[in-house]
Each structure stands twice: as C-alpha cells, then as structure tokens.
Amino acid sequence: MTNANILVVDDNKSVLSALEILLQFEYNSVQTIFNPNQISSFPNLNEIDIVLLDMNFSAGVNTGNEGLFWLNEIKKKSPNTSVIMMTAYGAVDLAVTALKQGASDFILKPWNNERLLTTVKSAYEYRKSKEEIHKLKKKESHLKQVINDDKNFIIGNSKALTSVLNLTRKVAKTDVNVLITGENGTGKELIARELHRLSSRKDEVFIGVDMGSIAENLFESELFGHIKGSFTDAKEDRAGKFEAANQGSLFLDEMGNLSLQTQAKLLSAIQNKSVTRVGSNKPVKVDIRLICATNCNLEQMVVDGLFREDLLYRINTIHIEVPPLRDRDGDILILADFFLKRFANKYDKPGLRINNLAQEKLMEYLWPGNVRELQHTMERAVILSEGNVLKPSDFLLHSKPSQSFEHGPATLDEMEQQMISKALDLHDGNYSAAAEQLGVSRQTLYNKLKKKNK
C-alpha cells in the first residue's frame, strides 16, 4: 500500500463509492466529497497528494467550466497537489484545456480500472519528484550561500584602494575576463569575490582554484573532470571545476605557475567555452565568469617564452592591480583595528587597544607580506598579550632577509628563504627562472613559499 492521501470530488455518489473501493487497497487514505463547495473549507488540503476532480457538477451543464474553476482553487491553496480531471468521452478538448491550466492528467468516464490505477500512480510519482526537486533546489541554494559566504571584508579608505574598488564596481556588471595582479597577501581573492558579489551571477557559485597546487598530471581531471575508468583512481564520473562553476564565477589563482602544456589546454577551454572530461570525447558547454590572478609579471614571462601571449590576451580583457599595503596610506591602522577587534572577540580578550608608539611602529613597517602579514601579526599580538594595552614590544616584525645574519647565525629555513627571496628579486618574480637558478622544480619552489606564508 502506497503512503499517499487521495481526495475524490464528484457529484455522483456511485462514482465516489466505486473509486473509494478501487483505491483503498492501493493507497493509505482515500477521502470523498460530494459537493465541490467543500473544497474551500477542506482541512489540510496541502497534505492531499492527489485530487480526482470531476469537470461538471450542475445538472444539464457540460461546459467543464466548474471543473476548471475548482482546479484553479485547489492550485491556489495547494500548488504541489496533483489534480486529475475526470471527464466524459465528448469532453476531451476540455481535458486538454485543464492540462494547460495545471492539471496533471485526465481520466475518461467510464474508466478502465487498470488504466486509472496507472494514471493515479504516475501522478503520485510526479508529485514526489517535484517535491524532491524542490528539496534539491533548496539544498543547492543553501550550499551556494555557504560557498559564497566569505567572512573576509575589503577594509580601508585609502586613495589607492578606492581607485581599485571603483574599477571593480564598473567591471563587475559585465562578463568580461579579468586579470588581478599584485603581491602576495594583498587581497587578490577578495577583489575576485567582490567582482562576483556585485555581478549578475551573485546567486550562483564562486569557485576558487589554486593553480599552483595542482599537480600537472591531475590538471585536466581537476579542471575539466573525468569519467569512470578513465584512469586507475577514476572510480566514478566527476565534474571538474569548470562544470562546477557553470552559471557562476571561476577564480583561477597563481596563473604564473602553469606550464606551457597546461596553458594550451586552459586556452582551448576558454576559447571554446566548453570542456571535455578525461576519458570522454563529448564536449560539455560551460557558462562562467573567468577571473584570474597572479603575483608574477606575465608580460615579462611572455617575453621569456614562459607564458603564452594568446592566453594572456584571453584572460586580460580588464586588468586590476591590487596595491601593496605600504602604498595604502592610512589603511594600516584601520586594518589593525579591524583585526584587533576580530581576534579580541575570538580569544575572549575584550578592551584591547594599541598605544601610540605601537601604532607608529606599525605605520613605519613596510609590510612585505601585506595584509596577510598584518593579520597574522595582530593575531599573534592578541594571543600573547598580558594587559589591555598593546605596546611596540608586543609586535614582532621581521627584519629584511639581508639583516638576518647580523645578529648571529641563521637557521637552515631562514637561509633557504633568503636564497629564494634573492632569486625571485633577481628574476623580477619569475618563478621558473628562480627555480632553475636554485636547482629545484617550480612546484617545489611554490610549495616552499606557501609553507613560509602559512
């Protein structure tokens, strides 16, 4: 027996009795109404799964208008209830009209029992599928909200930052590809999220991908997806990041770390607006807003033969340069106060403030790690604080790498980081050239820098 609630509405008591007897062995609850006026006051109509509704109730009237009227009334009160219209042979055209107005199906009188049971079963399954789709849409909406819920904010009112935000607002309304550049820790991802938040795609997903962390042999699988059995660990079909971001925004960070081979594959996907899963030959169309970011000088990499010029043109319709923190006059103390309140609340240390000398120390520092370094510095100061006032000694700021040997021997990690910094400075931030000089792979160099910045 199916756990469904059925309501039969007909002015012929013989019809009501026959249907009640037929349906009660198939469904959990079968109720009948002789007068359609009772529909308006029927209790818990929204809990009825299926209504079998006659099209004519007044003697001598066969226009079907009464049935259409009550169909609309039922749909107003319970939109998800499936309504099956019951009509005579001569009124099939009316039944078609009822279908256009929201009926699920119709049954001809006199009916065939097997066909009627099949029709009712199909209507019930359709109702359940609509409920499932509604649940999935609600779940999808919630997941998108969770994915897009970025608790970081763009803080500051400096001229340099205001200029960037003004450009971001102008560009956000369009679908053009955007390249965001800037030093590590300046907040390139925040600008990317702001582009998404202000765009027409704001209710869809924002998918971020750290391109430097993807092994080259997994590049296609991660970005374009794969089908079951396409390689050893492909135990099921899987959509890549492009498909996952469909209708939304795709943020590709650390673009300067891609090899020429992976650049070619990425260019093809961007040009064709489609991807082909590994192991498949069927292209899948994707509709995304592409946002890329890097801290490398891609123009110089093009000159050096390390980055494809055609790919640069594809991703660089609009260029947004995020300023380093040292160029954002006044924003240092605004950000410091923001992080102070956040971490004071997190670590239950209310009433903390920064004294004037400490503020001067923060203002004079160049912040090579930018906003990310300031955030970590404030968190460390709050955790280690012993009073309500943060003094200069509470802020442990790093000296320049070249100064690290002046006060005694450095650790191996410090020496390694100094060598990496010097190599990157020498090659103007070119990861490939720096890695070649140091005798390591670009992936190894990237991993060491990520470890340093954690």
Give the SSE layout.
Layout: E1 2-9, H1 13-23, E2 27-33, E3 50-54, H2 65-77, E4 82-88, H3 92-100, E5 105-109, H4 113-148, H5 159-172, E6 178-181, H6 188-197, E7 206-210, H7 219-224, E8 225-226, E9 238-239, H8 241-244, E10 249-253, H9 260-272, E11 274-276, E12 283-285, E13 289-294, H10 298-303, H11 309-315, E14 318-321, H12 331-346, E15 353-354, H13 356-364, H14 370-384, E16 389-390, H15 412-426, H16 431-438, H17 442-453
Parallel strand pairs: 1-2, 1-3, 3-4, 4-5, 6-13, 6-14, 7-10, 10-13, 15-16
Antiparallel strand pairs: 8-9, 11-12
Helix pairs in contact: 5-6, 12-14, 15-16, 16-17
Short description:
The chain is an alpha/beta fold and 454 residues long. The chain has helices spanning 13-23, 65-77, 92-100, 113-148, 159-172, 188-197, 219-224, 241-244, 260-272, 298-303, 309-315, 331-346, 356-364, 370-384, 412-426, 431-438, 442-453; strands at residues 2-9, 27-33, 50-54, 82-88, 105-109, 178-181, 206-210, 225-226, 238-239, 249-253, 274-276, 283-285, 289-294, 318-321, 353-354, 389-390. A five-stranded parallel sheet has the order 2-1-3-4-5, with helices on both faces.
Task: Note the main attributes of this structure.
454 residues; alpha/beta; 16 strands; 45% helix; elongated
Structural description of this entry:
- The structure is a single chain.
- Helix content is 45%, strand content 15%.
- It contains 17 helices and 16 strands.
- The strands form five sheets. It has a five-stranded parallel beta sheet, sandwiched between helices.
- Helix 5 packs across helix 6 and helix 16 packs across helix 17.
